[in-house]
Amino acid sequence: MIILRNISLRRGSKTLLNNVELTIQPGQRIALTGANGCGKSSLFALLQGELGADTGAIEGLDSMRMASMAQEVSATSENARDYLIGGNTEVFALRQQLQAAEQAEDFARVGQIHNELEACDGYDVERQADLLLAGLGFATDDSARSVKDFSGGWRIRLNLGRALMCPSDILLLDEPTNHLDLDATVWLQQWLVAYRGTLIMVSHDRDFIDATCQQIVHMEQQGLQLYKGNYSAFERQRAERLANQQATYARQQQRVSEIDDFVRRFRYKATKAKQAQSRLKELERMQLIAPAHIDSPFRFRFPEAARASDPMLKLDKARLGHGDTVVLSQVDLVLRPGSRIGLLGRNGAGKSTLLKSLTGVLPLLAGERFTGPHCSIGYFDQQQLEALDLQASAALHLQRARPQAREQEVLDFIGGFDFRGDNATKPIAPFSGGEKARLALALIVWQQPNLLILDEPTNHLDMEMRHALTMALQEYTGAVVLVTHDRHLLRNTVEELLLVHDGGVDVYEDDVAAYEKWILQQNPDARPQQREMHAAPVTETAATRKQQRKESAEQREKLKPLRSAIARAETQMDKASTALAAIEARLSEPSLYEESNKAELADLVWEQGKLRNEAEQLEESWLEFHQELEDLEQSTV
Fold first, then answer.
1. Are 327 and 353 in contact (CB under 8 A)?
2. Does one domain contain both 274 and 238?
3. Compositionally biased, Basic and acidic residues: which spans (predicted)?
4. Is the pLDDT of residue 532 over 50?
5. CA angle 48, 50, 56 (to 5 degrees)
6. Residue 453's beta-bridge partner residues?
7. Cβ(27)–Cβ(208) below 8 Å
8. Coil, strand, or helix at residue 39?
């Protein structure tokens, strides 16, 4: 048990914690949340003994083995596998002692060390390290590469692997998913679910928190507040509390109304079954938790997208890659006004290559790239942070992008990204990674693009900024192509998923949850394992196989009527959509509004309203059928 007693903590002139108390039980899984700068990393440093409290004491840590994730990696020549093995300090020390004993020909000590290695599972560390490397997205031959040969983001992954390699009673992880793609994030999620110690984690990925933690410790107003449940439960509780504050009621209702409008727009044009169903569930949930974010410092919108070409951008039989290396072949992709596409695929499959080829940063190796005359691209990747001028202010960055803008207009806009007062006008050199990421996003919004191409835009962003970005993207009327490991953002902002896999790009018909399962199936050897938790294998007999076939047949029979109903509803929806499109095409003709066509105009307007109601009712039925189907499938698993 860890007990924080009357802890106060100051950094400089700022009080982070004031006389707080907190008890952490063994095996608890806690997410530490709060705005950037509230003191989460300082609390971690306090737990690790790197900082001392101004008052109070922490009890219960002396007997605990602690593992934590370093945020920086020195450019060591050690190979990746050995670097991870170094995280198991006991085994690493024994291996060093074994080498020294063998050189000294102290064979009695050699034998003793071998026994100690056997007792602590020291002969399995190479295999464990290779499994961690595979799960974190490293290629097979990466284990022998020198640490100094990896980029900064990959070194952070090595630090994470080193922390996971260390036997521990308490594990501290500070933003573990920041440099991970979706595949590695899902793998880490499974690993942490199997972890049997006490987990304390700082993360701004709500899906990741929901899957791995059962308590939230929220840092706010110099205090620590413990909430039972995962992040979604915390959000609901906070929403209920803030909803009762009359001062913010009007703002809450305005936000709920805005989400209502978006839900209505989306329902009308939803086309893909599971993706639409998942999306609507998320939007309805967001209506309930809107008050939880009403005090967010971030409030911005993408301007109405300017006139756009159709198509905006097109790749035709494109071959993509670098130099002589072909990454993707025969890529056909058309982006139209309003396209909202999310890219899925394992690390190295070619997602970033595709994005750079879309922007023109990377020339095609073959095929054609067509850009419409009214296509204005806003492109975000982590390189945008490096391109910022550290000696310029946030306001000056915007002024340079649009010199004709008035100073007050610049300051009002940048304030929506929480750059206010001195933070808007002083050089950005001391800014954190999160602040620089916010500025890079602000620059893109400021330039009013009608096509957004976003490569991991949430890295370094805190929970409130991610929420604000989700809201802004929902209201954005332009086209979006998105790569992100933030599943909440993916579910709430895109309408079509593409899978980048095996050198090609294909439509992915299922939803994000199905993709998570697919990830784990692709690499069974890298699945996290805890031997004590595994049940004894079930021996399959002819009788059990016969029973399984019988149950499968019964399952198919139960699902058949629902599948037929869904197919009928989709056929009727297609017919209604085609008829509505024909009417709206006729309504767009200027001649229809002449006096002689008044009767036809009235008939068409009436028919348009009728078809819209019919389409909405069909879609309601279609979603209900899918919900029934999903519930039935889950009940028989």
1. yes
2. no
3. 549-560
4. no
5. 80
6. 379, 481
7. no
8. coil
Residue 545: pLDDT over 60: no
Q: Please confirm whether the linkage preceding 337 is cis (ω < 30° from 0).
A: no
pLDDT given at position 366 = 93
Tell me, yes or no, whether 272 lies in a domain: yes
**Number of residues written out for the chain:** 637
Helix (H, G, I), strand (E, B) or coil at 48: coil
| Strands, E assignment, 256-312 | none
* Cα 21 to chain centroid, rounded: 32
Q: Are residues 388 and 484 in the same domain?
A: yes
CB-count burial class (<10 Å; 0-12, 13-18, 19+) for 32:
buried
Q: What is the pLDDT of residues 462-516, one digit of tens each?
A: 888 888 888 888 888 889 999 999 998 888 888 889 999 989 999 988 888 888 8
CB 184 within 8 A of CB 114: no
Do 134 and 238 lie in a common domain? no
Same domain flag for 500 and 456: yes
- Given a contact cutoff of 8 angstroms between Cβ atoms, the answer to whether 440 and 384 are in contact is yes
Residue with tokens 């190979």: 79
Q: How far apart are CA 257 and CA 262, in angstroms?
A: 9
The full DSSP string for 89-120 is HHHHHHHHHHHHHHHTT-HHHHHHHHHHHHHT
Instruction: List, for residues 75-117, the tens digit of each pLDDT value.
Output: 778 889 989 988 888 888 888 888 888 888 788 888 888 888 8
Task: Please give the Cα distance from 196 to 449 (Å, whole number).
Answer: 48
Average pLDDT, the chain: 81
SS3 221: coil
3-state secondary structure 564-630: HHHHHHHHHHHHHHHHHHHHHHHHCCHHHHCHHHHHHHHHHHHHHHHHHHHHHHHHHHHHHHHHHHH
In a domain, 174, yes or no: yes
CA distance 471 to 203: 20
pLDDT of 453 higher than 70: yes
β-strand pairing of 313-322 with 325-335: antiparallel
Instruction: Please give the pLDDT value at position 288.
Output: 58
Residue carrying the six token digits 């805005």: 258
Residue 25: which of 163, 228, 219 has the closest Cα?
228
Nearest to 182 by CA among 508, 520, 437, 505: 520
Residue type (1 letter), 256: V
The overall pTM is greater than 0.85: no
Question: Within 10 Å of residue 61's Cβ, how many Cβ atoms?
Answer: 14
Domain residue limits at 628? 542-635
Percentage helix, strand, coil, to 5, in the chain?
Answer: 50, 20, 30
Confidence band for 368, pLDDT divided at 50, 70 and 90: very high
CB 30 within 8 A of CB 213: yes
Cα separation, 344 vs 504, whole angstroms: 12
Per-residue pLDDT at 635: 56
What does the pLDDT read at residue 537? 35
Three-class DSSP category at 123 = helix
Six-digit token string for 49: 């003994």
Do 318 and 417 fall into the same domain? yes
Task: Give the single-character DSSP code of 310.
Answer: S
Q: 5: burial class by Cβ within 10 Å (0-12, 13-18, 19+)?
A: middle
Cα 117 to chain centroid, rounded: 39
Angle CA 270–273–274, to nearest 5: 115
Question: What pLDDT was estimated at residue 268?
Answer: 45
Domain membership flag for residue 299: no
